[in-house]
Specification:
Length: about 150
């Protein structure tokens, strides 16, 4: 989805493409703030539905910082807002390329979330704090699934 969207955006404007990549970097900056105190920092981490750059960046930017709930919440909120912006931003240009590309884009996004969350979130020991873990718990309640999410 990311590579295909980059290709379509690049066919319209380098500025649009650079803006979208910048949003991706901003997501990772906020993710880095969320990773402070996480046992997965610097290791494999599902992060924002598969964004892995944030936990590596956290070790560089916040090497000696300790976990603070307020700092985490600020970064989680900023990351969530940026993630929504990142996902919605290319829709106009994708639509201009062909309305069916929007269906493909949204289908790949839904498929990724449906396949990703049940496989990753129950294995995370930081899921009581993580927005993704919270979303997974809500998903389990909504669909009456056995919530096997471990507590931190």
């Amino acid at each position: 989805m990311f590579i295909g969207s980059l290709y379509l955006l690049g066919s319209y404007s380098a500025f649009v493409t650079i803006t979208w990549v910048t949003l991706y970097v901003i997501i990772n900056y906020f993710q880095a703030g969320c990773c402070v105190g996480c046992p997965y920092r610097g290791k494999y981490c599902p992060a924002f539905v598969g964004v892995y750059f944030g936990n590596i960046l956290s070790g560089i930017l916040y090497k000696n910082r300790q976990f603070e709930a307020k700092f985490f919440k600020q970064n989680a909120t900023g990351g969530e807002i940026t993630l929504v912006t990142f996902l919605l931003f290319p829709m106009y240009w994708i639509f201009l390329s062909g309305w069916y590309y929007v269906l493909i884009y949204l289908g790949l996004l839904v498929a990724h979330i449906v396949l990703f969350m049940p496989k990753q979130c129950p294995k995370c020991s930081f899921n009581d704090t993580c927005p993704g873990g919270g979303a997974y718990k809500s998903y389990c309640k909504l669909f009456k699934r056995n919530n096997k999410v471990k507590s931190a």
